[in-house]
Specification:
mainly beta, six-stranded mixed sheet, Immunoglobulin-like
Length: 196
């Protein structure tokens, strides 16, 4: 049986979002995974982030504590999930797997992925209506949801146009909801999306 690790050359992640660095192989009865090591190279120095061995999972850099994980119950999947990405997470990540064969020899393979963490500005939001609108009977329940993409966290604000060209701030949530619409709710509404 031939063991081969597969991964990808580069992964782009969004600041404050999460990303998965693929590292997979086809499990074989002839080989047992002994050790899995994820390391990161940045500024010409390499540090081990994650190690899985007979003693369990170890996260060795406090910078990554509570932010990295590897699937537990899926043989052959050694992919690394990084959450709450920071700009400083950009670098070269190497997945190294060591197997023991039936005749007790060790086989070692590795695959390297470059991670680029980028900040993405919030996109122009779109408005989704809960029902088919934009005309509703009085007394109806409905809601409008403001949706944008970009680096989280994204904050939303809802406004209603009022006479004199002013705007009334209605909500700082993504969703604007009415339990019972009144004729006075008729008007022009708009939302803003903003991130850092």
């Amino acid at each position: 049986a031939l063991l081969d690790l597969s991964g990808v050359h580069e992964v782009k992640g969004t600041w404050m979002g999460s990303t998965t660095l693929p590292c997979t192989y086809t499990p074989s009865d002839d080989f047992t995974q002994q050790t899995l090591i994820w390391s990161m190279e940045r500024d010409y120095s390499t540090s081990t982030i994650f190690r899985r061995d007979n003693a369990g999972d170890h996260i060795l850099l406090s910078h990554f504590r509570d932010r990295v994980s590897v699937p537990k119950q899926s043989p052959g999947d050694a992919s690394l999930l990084i959450e709450n990405l920071e700009i400083s997470d950009s670098g070269h990540y190497t997945c190294q797997v060591i197997w023991r064969s039936r005749n007790n020899s060790l086989v070692k393979k590795e695959v390297t992925t470059t991670v680029k963490v980028v900040k993405v500005a919030a996109t122009k939001p779109i408005i989704r209506a809960s029902e088919l609108g934009p005309t509703f009977p009085a007394g109806a329940r409905t809601s409008l949801t403001c949706v944008a993409n970009g680096s989280p966290p994204i904050s939303y604000r809802w406004f209603k146009s009022v006479p004199g060209g002013k705007a009334l701030l209605l909500s700082s949530q993504a969703e604007l909801a009415w339990d019972s619409l009144q004729p006075s709710d008729t008007g022009k509404y708009y939302c803003e999306a903003e991130n850092r």
